[in-house]
Amino acid sequence: MFKHYLVPATHLAKSNVQVTAEVVFWNESIWKTNHSVVTEFIFLGLSDSQELQIFLFMFFFVFYVGIVFGNLLIVITVVYDSHLHSPMYFLLANLSLIDLSLSSVTAPNMIIDFFRECKIISFKGCLAQIFLLHFFGGSELVILIAMAFDRYIAICKPLHYTAVMQANVCVGIVLTAWGIGFLHSVSQLAFAVNLPFCGPNEIDSFYCDLPRVVKLACVDTYRLDIMVIANSGVLTVCSFILLIISYTIILMTIQRRPSDKSSKALSTLTAHITVVLLFFGPCIFIYAWPFPIKSLDKFLAVFYSVITPFLNPIIYTLRNKEMKTAMRRLRKWKLNSRVMF
Question: What is the dihedral of CA 168, 170, 171, 174, to 10 degrees?
Answer without folding.
Answer: 160
